[in-house]
Amino acid sequence: MCEYHVHRGYETINEAKKYRLVDFFERHWDKYMESPTEYVKPEQLKAVNAMRVCRTAVLGIDEYACPDCGEITRVYHSCKNRFCPTCSWQDTVRWAEKVKRNMLWIKHRHVVCTLPHSLHPIIKKNQKKLLSALMRASAHTFQEWFECKYRLQIGIILVMHSGGEQKEYHPHTHMIVSWGGIHKETGKLVEIKDEYVNYKFLQKKFRCKFEDELIKMNDAGELKHDFNDRHDFMRFIKSVNQNDWILHLEPAIQTPEEVIRYIGRYSKRACLSDHKITSIEGESITFRHKDYRDRDERNKAKEKELTLHYRDFFPMLLQHVPEPYFRIVRYYGLYSNKGFIPEEYKKPGTENQKQSWSDIQELKTGENPMYCSHCHKRKIYIHTLLDTRSKEERQIGIQTINTFLKIKRKRAA
Question: What is the pTM of this model?
Fold first, then answer.
């Protein structure tokens, strides 16, 4: 008799998630869409719908069978949306392995660049343009500093984050900066031993670079804002300069493997991980977060919990869904497509190390679903089951689309 091994999640028995974000959306999303607190953008609706059907029969099921005993593994298709907590974890693992193979085998530093809160309103009105400007200003600040001071071309991996620990709007960048690079004249790999930097200089350079782009866009008439004229706009910029432009540099990390392990949680991970959810009761959800304003005796941020009603939680979470075609992970210098790193400056033996889906599954659960548990032979692909949606699942899709069109007609009227 055939046995079915269903592979839908990535948790072991000991790590099984107690609460899932998708369950909270399943319970309350349709009701919320009847009278949403805020306008739901098409990309936000797409992200929610993708997460709700992820690893269900709606997206299809691949079946693999052992050629000897007939044991079958059913693999559910994933949505591959960055908003989905499960898919984002898998994407992060693959991304980390790919990036690690193309990094300089020297120390790196984690750098965070943050804008003053007074800029948040204008950024919300010009998200794509100003978030891209923030990413360029962050990366170019360090690229130019290394080039002028050390004559080095460095590598930078930059990740854009729009939310803080409590999921409030808080745009900032996380960067992996190689603490050294290839000398522009000699072509040799040079590692910087000293970790000291002129913090005030870099802080001012970062501020000037971002403000230069901001003023240039305003003068070209490319910005949406509520200022009366240029004089009013420049007065606003002057007031912003009185606030803190924060750059935070972590101590140097020795190898790219340690860097990727450290920065992984800041990259392609979902805005809210399932493992941070501590309770789902009635119409409310509770999740853990770090409070950096309240620290313990070791100066570590204390962990606290926040409980929100779904009418407050949904719009707060959805504001972090990226704009269409906006790349939240970008590469600069040696790590860009135009950069070239000689093989001898990378970690030896990493050229062909690639992780498949079954490798990731084995890493997480301890078993490879593509091998028979009885015969230990590799299973072969049989077919993909399509159009297996239930009436209830089809109805959810129809209701969601109709509600969205209804909202769109109201806004047009």
Answer: 0.80
